[in-house]
Design goal:
Blueprint lengths: L7 H29 L8 E4 L14 E5 L11 E7 L4 E14 L2 E7 L16 E9 L2 H8 L2 H28 L11
Antiparallel strand pairs: 1-2, 2-6, 3-4, 3-6, 4-5
Helix pairs in contact: 2-3
Amino acid sequence: MDLPNVSSESLDTRRLGHIIGFVLLVAIVGIFLAIAIPGLVGADESFVVQSSSMSPSIGAGSVVFVSDQPATDVTEGDVITFETTGEQSSRRVTHRVVDVVEQDGDRAFRTKGDANEEPDTELVSPDQILGIVQFHLPLIGYVVAFGGSQYGVIALIVVPAILLIVTELRDLIRTSRTDGGGRENKPD
């Protein structure tokens, strides 16, 4: 049986492509595993940044990884994620601590987004702090937010599931048409 003339250069290029693809897949899966299970990277929680108030250091669409720390460990210059309480709902904010002040015998924190001209109007109390930002991943939050939407579920779960089923059915049909030697079964 003659094999087609395939140069070793094309095999090396193909092999390199497979290795690069595998490394990219592992990196992508690792990133999303870390977002889903922040403890894998030493953080307690992860949040998607919704606004550009911390630009350029942390842009909208970034995922921040925060570690739960006592309020006594928070110092000026730390970037913290905290929860605000409004009349209708609460929201999470990630801003930099620009001043630590005493309020009613307890520490409170004046915060400001790096892109904002003025500090936030309300002081942040220790019980509002969700954690200190350890690091962030830019732009990944857009994918996370998309994945949580109706279209994201369709694009990231339903379509790949259908493609997997179709390719498995195709392989089953091919296998049933061939015998163990790889030759097609032909009726006599």
